[in-house]
Amino acid sequence: MTSVYVINGPNLNLLGTRRPEVYGSTTLADVEELCRQEAGKLGLELEFLQSNHEGQLVDWVQEAGARVAAGECIGAVLNAGAYTHTSIALHDAIEGASLPVIEVHISNVHAREEFRHRSFVSPVARGIVVGFGVHGYVLALQGLHQLSR
């Protein structure tokens, strides 16, 4: 079965308790279940991952890129958290692995602090979903699936 990766960066393990006025009360486990259901509807196997460590995210991006090249995966939905705004390494990994990525953010980062307006992921992403809460993950999975056809 073809797979899809959903990769989550730092502090997303705190969903449901960290700034619920911004991120809501849904937990990361709830997001995983939401993604698992949507992936199933799309006929995809889900690889749902989270790490607070930049190097681990880079490793997963490279792994997903290799699986796309092998025809086993359609790409990744990536919520890089704060690394979105700081990680040239993630930018280079996405580009180097030729990984189709949909960048997703729970909040509208453009309506927040100035430092959140710059993304190192966006220039190498196939699409971007921001501000739809956790439903953005579903939209990102649907978009990635559509682009892979």
TrEMBL record:
Its annotated function is as follows: Catalyzes a trans-dehydration via an enolate intermediate.
Return the protein name.
3-dehydroquinate dehydratase
| The protein's assembly and partners | Homododecamer.
InterPro entries xref list = DHquinase_II, DHquinase_II_sf
Reaction catalysis annotation: 3-dehydroquinate = 3-dehydroshikimate + H2O
Task: Give GO terms: molecular function aspect only.
Answer: 3-dehydroquinate dehydratase activity
Identify the stretch annotated as signal peptide in this record. none
- Annotated EC: 4.2.1.10
Q: Which organism is it from?
A: Asanoa hainanensis
Its pathway, per UniProt, is:
Metabolic intermediate biosynthesis; chorismate biosynthesis; chorismate from D-erythrose 4-phosphate and phosphoenolpyruvate: step 3/7
Short name of any one Pfam family annotated for the protein? DHquinase_II
Q: Where is the active site?
A: Y23, H105
What are its GO biological-process terms? amino acid biosynthetic process; aromatic amino acid family biosynthetic process; chorismate biosynthetic process; quinate catabolic process
Do you know which NCBIfam families this protein is assigned to?
aroQ (TIGR01088), PRK05395.1-2 (NF003805), PRK05395.1-3 (NF003806), PRK05395.1-4 (NF003807)
Q: Where is this site: Transition state stabilizer?
A: R18
Q: Is Nucleotide-binding tagged as a keyword?
A: no
Residue positions binding substrate: N79, H85, D92, I106, S107, R116
* Protein family (similarity comment): Belongs to the type-II 3-dehydroquinase family.
- What's in the keyword line of the UniProt record? Amino-acid biosynthesis, Aromatic amino acid biosynthesis, Lyase
